[in-house]
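[SOLVED] Need 3D model of a two-part complex

Original post:
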Amino acid sequence: MSLLPNLTPLIDVVFLLLVFFMFVTQLAKDRAVPLTLPALPEAEVERFRGRSTLIVNVVPAGSSEQGAGGYRFGLLSFPASVDGLRALSGALGEARRRDPGAALLLRAQADERYERVHPVMQAAVLAGFPGVQLVTLPNGRSQRQEVAP
Amino acid sequence: MTLASGAPTSAPSRRADGAGASEGPHRFRRRKPIRGPGRTPIVLNVTAMIDVVFLLMTYFLLIAQFRSAERGLPLALPRKLEASAPAAAPRDPFELPVRPLTVLVRSTGPARSHMTLSVDDPAIPRPNSLDELVSSLSSARGVSMPADQLIAVRPAPEARWEHALMVFSALRQAGFEAIRLSNPVPAAPASAPPR
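Solution:
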């Protein structure tokens, strides 16, 4: 009788666990809040695939997400106040110092009030960003809730 | 020696239920029945297949997560903040005043067309729609205003973000290079009733 153990199921399970943890890691650093983004049919939009991105979300007030009514940059939440925006600007500047080539993505709900979106751009100016990517969806997909790359 | 003597004894027994039985008249009787009580149970081990199927399923879940339809509309930011009061900072006396053409955006409803636009240039008629604004600005471009005219899109504080982006994007499509999204402060106090 052969005493060699059959390692194939073990290896299969190990691969499953590997893929599972890759998946879970991706979810843990999920930086994009589910939002109904504005849809632009004629926008000269560009994909930001393959570039490192910093994502600032304007979280709606009624949202169940962390930082509702304020701003979320990564896993950090900032209230919609002067101090909160100053802290957001500092965090953006720190992130830019670490990765100067990163693109800054601004995600806001389509029905968000402009006065809540504009301070993020001011914070980006203060942090020294030369530009910002206003995240939109191609037309016809506005009802889908997407997760940014 | 023991191996050599053992080999001939095992060889006839193998031939008796295998190849040797095919020559005799009882070849079907010696074979194990496919059906019935004495059959060998045919068990297919599907565990490995299920594992691979789960792997593929997880893989495609992962890929679906990565694929995103989001696009970015690039907006160049100024190097310093727009001054809320124009005369606050001491200005260079030799600097020519750069006066942007201001487009005010107000939202009147949730639909995409529910917005009112106004331009602070008297040479441009008050637009009734976004298409009218783009066409009148395009025709005035290079005629009554320079081709590299700076345009400030100035939405009202309560304007919908979608409407601000639509105006911004339409002006970009019309070929205007220098567009900024200004402070949400109404430029003309008369046209801005505080809510």
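Edit: The radius of gyration of chain A is 20 Å.
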